[in-house]
Amino acid sequence: MKSLQLDRLRGVVERAFDNVELFRTRLNERGLTPADIRGLEDIAKLPFTVKTDLRDTYPFGLFASPMAEVVRLHASSGTTGKPIVVAYTQEDVDVWTNAMVRSLASCGITHGDIVQNAYGYGLFTGGLGAHYGAEALGATVVPISGGNTERQIMLMKDFKVTAICCTPSYFIHLLERAGELGVDVRELPLRAGVFGAEPWTESMRRHIETAGGIKAYDIYGLSEIIGPGVAVECWAQNGLHVFEDHFFPEIVDPVSGEPLAEGCEGELVITTLSKKAMPMIRYRTRDITSLVPEPCPCGRTIRRMRRIGRRSDDMIILRGINVFPSQIEGALLAVEGTLPHYQIVLSREKGLDQMEVQVEVTPEVFSDQIGALEKLHDKLTHSLDHTLGLRVAVRLVKPQTIQRSEGKAKRVIDRRNLV
Amino acid sequence: MKIHQLSLFLENQPGQMIEPCRLLAGAAIDIRSLSLADTRQFGILRMIVSDWKVAAELLESKGYVVNVTEVVAIEVEDRPGGLAELMTLFENSGINIEYMYAFPFGRGNRAVMIFRFDQPDAAIERLRAAGINVVGGVDVYNRVS
Predict the structure, then answer these.
(1) Which residues between 26 and 55 in chain B have a beta carbon less than 8 angstroms from any beta carbon of chain A?
(2) Is the Cβ of B7 closer than 8 Å to some Cβ of chain A?
(3) Chain B nearest-CA residue for A400
């Protein structure tokens, strides 16, 4: 494995150096050339790539392939409303598909299974990634995409679906809706769920497995690297195997960036060893985890990482969509002209993640007329909707009700894991 | 001839009304009249008080958002048709009544009502021309009956 990783690492560093200006400049600044990568440990000499690099070079600045060789583009939300764009050659799509085939197989899914793919299809990598993987595995795909829960339940029952791919919070929502409709999911043929695109807990897993009568597996991935299929659990459900022949993991100190010893908890950094269209060298995922050096009882020899419990930045993942408090600030500022005190409250209702933005009413915007306040409320809702691309609730609150600590308000209250 | 009305932002939750009432009580400020407008999330408490400047300062110092609006207090005949006759004045005038409420006290056989017009000056002009008594601030704040 190590010699394969080194071969591929040298290849990808050379490719990025030859084709990506930002990477070449950064190596030059450090007096490095691709020839300086002699061993795997030399990876620590290379500069990091961060999310803002993708934003700063929007849309195509980090591509290492001419557009004629790019067969697919995906995009996800960034910090300023501009999305980040990722590209795939046919070879990249094939690597991705292969990683998803392995992922689904690791969750016990095989040909003959009927897979309901409830990840959103479109620019989001979840839908198409799971779709191609399940098809290549020889399973029957039901490409239902997200939403329309009642129809999801009907088809799940009528098609005798055996596996589902979606976010864990959506599946909990589906279970609750099924209960309201008098459908007991435990009695359906459904036996496996591949859940990802947002953090979830062991207690959620227990709930899903008991209420759904299925095995629930955690899958990890991010668009910048490839999409879903970077790492996945096996039957042991004790850590996610990283497909390290394509995605090389490192754990670094989230503050200093220094590499940490194996087994230590820190920020996950990934290098794409095989990517052609958009190589990512030492990409800072902001996800906090650790690598597990011990062998897994399942027999796979690739390393595992622990489930992601938290992130090193303030990014919020809501129903699979990335949201930054800075985006919310921008949206509020656009309406009021001055930034009001606000707070983001995350909760889980009927299994679905909810976001409420509480905004303190200021004398400047307050009026004796209900209509004026309702108009303000609508404008704030619209502005947030427009910026985030998702519907959030706005609540106007009395001044001084939002807690301030050391003059700075605590921006995000996450109550999702307490449920 | 306009009256100063205080409006307070309140959240629509149990216990929100009592604090401002207690604060005013503590400062010996009398609430002459009030009206509460509510939505599912929040409410606006509108009040005519005996000393609006002191009340506004006090409430603001306690963290309330206070809005001061000029409204018009009008005497209305307290009999069937009294209000309808008054409203006729504004029919087809283009003047909008945003909201209104009444004082708990009257003057003789007349009730006193608060009107929030979108164009208070134009409204007062019409009232005067029709010989209708617009009650002055001092009368209302001091409850002259």
Answers:
(1) 37, 39, 41-42, 44, 46
(2) yes
(3) B63
Q: What is the CATH number of the domain that holds A125?
A: 3.40.50.12780
* Chain B interface, best mutation among A362, A376, A398, A400, by max B CB count within 10 A: A398
Q: How many CB pairs under 8 A join A and B?
A: 50
| DSSP category for residue B82 | H
Has residue A183 been placed in a domain? yes
Q: What is the pLDDT of residue A407?
A: 43
Domain count, chain A: 2
Using alpha carbons, select from A377, A400, A370, A371 the residue that is nearest to residue B35.
A370
Fold classified for B2-69? VC0802-like (3.30.2130)
Q: Is A193 inside a domain boundary? A: yes
The per-residue pLDDT for range A253-283, each reduced to its tens digit, is 988 899 999 899 899 999 999 999 999 999 9
Q: How confident is the model at residue A337 (pLDDT cuts 50, 70, 90)?
A: low
Q: Which residues contact B134 (CB under 8 A, 6 or more apart)?
A: B1, B72, B73, B74, B75, B124, B127, B128
Beta strands at A192-195 and A215-222: parallel, antiparallel or unpaired: parallel
A400 closest CB neighbour out of B7, B63, B98: B63
> Given CB atoms, is A403 within the 8 Å cutoff of chain B?
no
Kindly report the pTM of this predicted structure.
0.68
Chain A: nearest CA to B78, how far in angstroms?
27
Give the mean model confidence (pLDDT) for residues A150-163.
97
Average pLDDT of span A158-163: 98
Name every residue whose Cβ is closer than 8 Å to that of residue A30 and which is 6 or more positions away in sequence.
A45, A47
Please identify, among A285, A313, A341, the residue that sits at the C-terminal boundary of a domain: A313
The reply to whether A373 touches chain B by the CB within 8 Å rule is yes
Out of A367, A374, A399, closest to residue B63 by CB: A399
At A128, list the tokens: 């198409």
Pairing of strands A114-117, A140-142: parallel
Residue A100 banded pLDDT, cuts 50, 70, 90 = very high
Numbers of helices and strands, H then E, in chain B: 5, 7
What is the average pLDDT score of chain A? Answer: 90
Which residue is listed with tokens 């005190």? A341
> What's the CA gap between A309 and A200, in Å, rounded?
7
Q: In angstroms, what separates the C-alpha of A322 from chain B's closest C-alpha? A: 28
CA-based nearest residue in chain A for residue B100: A369
CATH classification of the domain holding A410: 3.30.300.30
Chain B contacts of A401, Cβ < 8 Å?
A: 11
Residue of B nearest to A393 (CA): B41
Determine whether the interchain pair A366/B7 forms a contact, defined as Cβ–Cβ distance below 8 Å: yes
Q: Is B83 on the interface with A (CB under 8 A)?
A: no
Task: Compute the distance between CA of residue A355 and CA of residue A394 in angstroms, rounded to an integer.
Answer: 9
CATH of B71-141, one of 3.30.1030.10, 3.30.565.10, 3.40.50.1820, 3.30.70.260: 3.30.70.260
* Dihedral class, residue A350 (left if φ above 0, else alpha if ψ from -120 to 50, else beta): left
Nearest beta carbon to residue A368 from set B39, B63, B116: B116
